């Protein structure tokens, strides 16, 4: 079935056509009809399979079809997401698909000035895409009213219902009308979260696509055993051997992101970092440079593992393994999106073997191992442009240091 055969408003069809979306993806095919019927839906489908449009198309259709246009009435649809970058991205999808409709979509998120967001809110909007924190501030100050919300969507639903967010979500639910449509979308879910999700809705329709393998079939993923201290040489090699490719590198912490960045800088590789310690302006700038391809290497923490849709990321490198097994699925899912193919490699040090076992347990099967022969391993370290200290230069360094300290001691009484 093609989009042109759907009973959706021509205004949306026009936008789909412009985007070159001819046929719905599996999840769109299965989720759009029950959403249009007003049912609650829990939808699980692999990364990069078009889940955003699966909820955006029916929401835009339903709001645009209303005869009585009543935006001033208040927000009709609330989409909650875990990160600011994702809030912006999803808002863009609503804007693009809803370009020829009357539906107004806006986003609020923290880390930027509040005043412009308030002004825009006062104009009246239909769809609000938000991260929980800022939205809550605005709700408690009375700038956002949620009593007209008819549809609640949780994207990355398992994450939104997990420990870090569940309190916020429960707070939000208290402000929403009882009678509403609730939609959950994610690539991963576990039994506990599923039960929690069911407890929040009435008779939901469950749609699960290829539940056996949570990793997108478009991603060729493997693991390589590499010592912690050698990882930077292997990253350098992957980057230099794939020159011109967009490579997303995941590390465990913010500090490590900066360290790996410095190591790449030393060997002449231009990269950017993205993590929670950067201010919002810098985060967005780094993401945009990577999107445009001005910078080909982005070193990020798990803040960008979920949902982010950047076209033509060829490679995902797990420089460190993720702490939470499902984040493996989300990280490698930043490549191989839509119809594209992608590759991923994970660097596993001996101390990370335990985490690897957990991830494989979660996936239900082992990850392909890249065999690196001893020779190749040392060749990779030799390949590095990093200046390695030999004995002679070490001795010279010691000498220089001693001389410098002698000189320092001479002028007495001076600070
Ligand atoms: P998910 O949320 O499932 O990870 P996204 O909604 O971010 O995936 O979409 C992944 C990519 O697929 C996006 O670049 C999007 O533009 C593209 N896409 C979505 N639906 C279609 C479609 N019906 N036909 C072609 N491309 C699509
Ligand atoms: Mg998504």
From TrEMBL:
Coiled-coil stretches: none
Superkingdom in the source lineage: Bacteria
Keyword ATP-binding: yes
UniProt keyword Hydrolase present: yes
Span of the annotated motif Q motif: 1-29
GO terms for MF: ATP binding; hydrolase activity; nucleic acid binding; RNA helicase activity
Keywords: ATP-binding, Helicase, Hydrolase, Nucleotide-binding
Domain DEAD-box RNA helicase Q: 1-29
Domain Helicase ATP-binding: from-to ranges: 32-207
Domain Helicase C-terminal intervals: 234-378
Pfam short name (any one): DEAD
One Gene Ontology cellular component annotation held by this UniProt entry: cytosol
Family per similarity comment: Belongs to the DEAD box helicase family.
Designated name of the protein: DEAD/DEAH box helicase
Provenance organism: Rufibacter hautae
Phylogenetic classification of the source organism: Bacteria, Pseudomonadati, Bacteroidota, Cytophagia, Cytophagales
